[in-house]
Amino acid sequence: AQSVTQLDSQVPVFEEAPVELRCNYSSSVSVYLFWYVQYPNQGLQLLLKYLSGSTLVKSINGFEAEFNKSQTSFHLRKPSVHISDTAEYFCAVSDVGAGGYQKVTFGTGTKLQVIP
Amino acid sequence: NAGVTQTPKFQVLKTGQSMTLQCAQDMNHNSMYWYRQDPGMGLRLIYYSASEGTTDKGEVPNGYNVSRLNKREFSLRLESAAPSQTSVYFCASRDRAYYGYTFGSGTRLTVV
């Protein structure tokens, strides 16, 4: 069975402060890990992903996430947030597989509110 | 550069009415998906199509049907809408699991 836990439903943070959005997962098989961002009234967009190799992955807009196998975590961080980062962030895990359907499970989302 | 296109963007239905949500992708992806998003519940998979000509149930298929019309198009039908189907519906596509999904902009459906 596969599950994703995002314990924080909302995270308020002041502009230019650092932020960490937490994601823990469980799975009995190898997984890929993703973070998606959803801006108000829009669809989800892929922010970054971990497939294999280096455990630290980065996005083009300053976010980074670190895969920690022992803690089964994939927390998202940004050292200095901007107003434009206000959005909902979803962690997701996908089974690894070559064909057919690879199960994807989403967390319940964390709303990041950046305060001016 | 359209990606995944969903229509309509908004819809209000009366209980018992039917409707079809349309989805088309122009990225030549093999797999297409329908999700619903409800507050505090994340995204839940309704149906998916791993390849053209195949469809399978997801977590919450009751009350829905789908058609994979061709490689580009994947529609979701509500035969008899119920208030419990009030939600935001997202269509997504992907090629390989490691690419992640490309999502449409969503259909906000209200059933009264």
How are the elements arranged and paired?
The complex is a heterodimer of chains A (116) and B (112).
Chain A: E1 3-5, E2 10-14, E3 19-21, E4 24-26, E5 31-38, E6 44-50, E7 56-58, E8 64-68, E9 73-78, E10 87-95, E11 104-106, E12 110-115
Parallel strand pairs in A: 2-12
Antiparallel strand pairs in A: 1-4, 3-9, 5-6, 5-10, 7-8, 8-9, 10-11, 10-12
Chain B: E1 4-7, E2 10-13, E3 19-25, E4 31-37, E5 43-49, E6 56-57, E7 64-68, E8 74-78, E9 87-94, E10 102-103, E11 107-111
Parallel strand pairs in B: 2-11
Antiparallel strand pairs in B: 1-3, 3-8, 4-5, 4-9, 5-6, 7-8, 9-10, 9-11
Description:
The complex is a heterodimer of chains A (116) and B (112). Chain A has 116 residues and is mainly beta. Chain A is built from no helices and twelve strands. In chain A, strands 2, 5, 6, 10, 11 and 12 form a six-stranded mixed β-sheet that branches. Chain A has a four-stranded antiparallel β-sheet with strand order 3-9-8-7, with no helix packed on it. By secondary structure, chain B is mainly beta. Chain B is built from no helices and eleven strands. Chain B has strands at 4-7, 10-13, 19-25, 31-37, 43-49, 56-57, 64-68, 74-78, 87-94, 102-103, 107-111. In chain B, the strands form two sheets. In chain B, strands 2, 4, 5, 6, 9, 10 and 11 form a seven-stranded mixed β-sheet that branches. In chain B, strands 1-3-8-7 form a four-stranded antiparallel β-sheet, with no helix packed on it. The radius of gyration of chain B is 13 Å and the shape is globular. The model of chain B has no long low-confidence stretch (mean pLDDT 94).
